[in-house]
């Protein structure tokens, strides 16, 4: 079953000018990863340092493989520009509602 993952991040104010390019470069790999159906980047209208990445995955297994990759050899370069720990939340479609 497809899932949607929301990755809520905040970047340091002093990194705001470089953040879009760094996100773009990082998401090239994410979007090409097996099972990724797409990624949208939302920016908070009140706080330009606040982003939410909306990721669509074929399955929980594909998402898990991606998270394992990012925790190991595919570690992203975003760490130094983040102002806190990202928050990841995963959802699936409720078919019985």
UniProtKB/TrEMBL annotation:
Source domain of life: Bacteria
Parts of the chain that traverse the membrane: none
Domain annotation ABM: ranges: 3-65
Coiled coil start-end: none
Name of the molecule in the record: ABM domain-containing protein
Species of the source: Cryobacterium lyxosi
